[in-house]
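Can't attach files on this board, so I'm pasting raw text. These are the components:
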Amino acid sequence: MKKELIKSKSNFNNPLKKTPFYEKFSSQMTQGYWYDWSGYKAASIIQDQELEYFAIRSTTSLFDISPLIKYRIKGKDTEKFLNKLTVRNVILQKNNTVQYTLWCNDDGHVLDDGTLFKFSEFDYRLCCQERHLPWLLDTAIGFDIELFEETDLVAGLSIQGPTSASVLNNAGLSIINTLKPFDFVTIKKNILISRTGFTGDLGYEIFLPNQLANNFWDKIWEAGKYLGIKAIGFNALNIARVETGFIVANSDFITAEHAIRNNRTRNPDEIGLSWMVDMSKPFFNGKDAIVKIRKNNLSKYVFAALEIDGKEPADGAIIYHDKKHEVGIITTATWSPTAKKSIALASMKLPYGQKIKSNLWVEIYALRELEYYKMMKKVSIVKTPFVKLKRRTLTPPLKN
Amino acid sequence: MNSQHKNYDVIIIGAGHNGLVNACYLQKAGLNVLVLEKNDWIGGAAVSRELTPNILYSNCSYVCSLFRPEIMRDLELPKHGLQIIGIEGGTTFTQDGRYLANYRNYHSKRREMARFSVKDSEAYERYSRDVTRQCRFIQPLLMRTAPDPASFKSKDIGEIFYLIKQFNELSPDQMAETIRFWTMSISDYLDEYFENDVIKASLALSGIIGTALGPMSPGTAYVLLHHYMGEVDGSIGSWGYARGGMGAITQALSSSFKSFGGELITESEVENILIKNNQAKGVALKNGNEFYSSNIVSNADVKRTFLKLVDDKFLPPSFVKKVKNFKIRGSSGKVNIGLDSMPDFPAVPKGDPCIKGDIHFTDSIERMEKAYDDWKNGTWSKDPFLDMMIPTATDPTMAPPGKHFMSCFVQYCPPKVYGKDWTQEKKEAFGETVIKQIEDYSPGFREKIIHMEIRTPKELEDEVGLTEGNIFQGELTFDQLLFNRPVPGYAQYRSPLKGLYICGSSTHPGGGVMGAPGRNAAIEILKDLKKPTSHARSAYEVI
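---
Top answer:
Structure tokens for the assembled complex are below.
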């Protein structure tokens, strides 16, 4: 492990760090909607949330993903270590691809989900929402690996939208045309381009050394001049990710290291990610617990994607069966501007949401001028994504 | 003569957006529907056409603020490729070289107005509250069949009670305001709130778009609602462009219709509707073919349907007279332009997004009224007002990088010039009037033009089939709304002839690319055929 430099400067005045793209986003921001993403200054809205959303779905959006927590794992035992840590089998993962994955504690409770970039069998990068160094180091005991955090060394920029491939081509990066979803390529100056994203649309993510960030931005911005390029904040992205049915840690489920109360943790089956768990692996963290959970039907919850009648967003609403019994809660809800539907992600109490899927309702309290309109709205359970776009997966990518 | 013996449950004349909406709902209910379109393209007035290589033109309608989200959801139009994109900006240029921008941000917009009048900038809040109140009253009515006040059917009585209930929720003052609003001129209405000419002009523009009335004519305030409602939907995306042009709407509808199993034939112009014993029997095409069905739905306007497609002798004379009296006057034209690069507007700071929205060059209501005077005199306005947009500044899919499509809606433009038919020469002079006005605010504009299409009401009538080229299939004034649209006693999409229906914008709730007439008509037809209507969801409640 590399030793971190201990800086003597006071942290009191600067709780939020600036990312390498901070100046670029900041220069376009008109209203100062910043939020705290893992201790970095991240934009909620740059100028106009709705137009930023439309950039994702109709042109090209730029979103700063530098605050993603990034761990680099290298060494002889890297694959053995990762196969112990995560629930998927990393040996099956091809070089230069990205794997969406998750990892559990010994109780089979989810610690986080994230993306795993495979450079070679001896070199991986793990990106995630939360910081996990203690758990990673505990898991690493006995393995010959080098593990260090490179969050502050690597800048990240997400370029998403139907014209994003054209933008990258204009910027001279025609190498992306052969990338299939989840592929990545590393070009000169150690710039990594992956065909990944959090929008369910055509899109790419770029990881590059901090010092290249400004120049890279300028190049992309110029390339997108006639293609509707726009800097966006998280609010717009959040709508797109719900439309795709993607979950966010500590929003749609509580991570095991955070959950204080009993029953707040979730196993992979309870958050809709059972497909990830590779039971053919001899061992991984939490496997024994998951075997037991599955054998004895111990899961108590199920993830559900909902379409709701009407147009009022149902944030935080309680789900009822037969308008009477509480059977779940909506974790994230939004109006889908593309599907023109009120949609939501939810955590439901079994057997509701799995065996019992009809006669479900949500109670929505819509506050208008200091009075609530209370509405009981019918809910239907659907498959994700809510918005399915062919261009997301077409290779070579569509040019608009 | 060829005749097609396959029997359809319903035949729809015209593949405009309402005809297609109607077709989708009927086909989805399990009926066997045929849509006949006269042109070799579909879409009516909601089209994207490649009039010059690589540039798509929304050469008729150009924004879709009103298309009902309930219809998009019922017919799964997003799945069939329809995407609505929000519009940014808007600006009114003044003759003295200034501009008044319209921004989406409340404070940016308020400060813009304050540059012209501080008082008006604050009065906007009150104005917007009052117009929103009117919208809240009207909006729930869009997706309901208007009641017939002369009928004693329980359904009509129920609907009348609904209207009364809606009305009763208003305070006595608000009731008075509502009645005034429906009958006032936009000019008088705005005078009650604002003092500045430029601000008033910028707000009045939407009050008379598509209407053969001037800003000082009574009844024009209501038209404002029709253009304002898209913004009060409350959900994002309601005021916007269709990605890929307006044709994206009808393309998605057509794809949805076909996915339900519907049949659509182009280049099939209907010559007349076949009637036997007071009952619709089928249609005879200009090419000699005949198709049979005892249910015929016309997407054409009320005049075209009953004065051209149906022989007078089958119709009651009083009905024919009322149809003849229906006001459907041509008042606007369009100049559609392909541009080599984005036009410059030196009055506006470089890079300002206000030119991505609707652009206007008319800075006073007086100028608008004078433009109307020309029309009354029988010619096109010499100083017209334009509602101009450059959709490609927002949607790069319609033109190659850096090139643009510009849509100029021009008012006023008569169906005949001093009572005589349009000639090529006059048409070009009309186009020149428009270009000259733009050039006054955008030096070098003329040099950027790659291609131009000039459409007077005559072309709109000949190509799209809109009588006199009226974009709303009949003016949206109070005398022609609700149970009076198109004709008293026949406001429920039916006609004096059994099995003959109309579903276009001539019917309630009127024009704009809204889809509501087509959907409402489908519900009435399904009721007559005793078929389920549960696949047509009720309108989202306005709370």
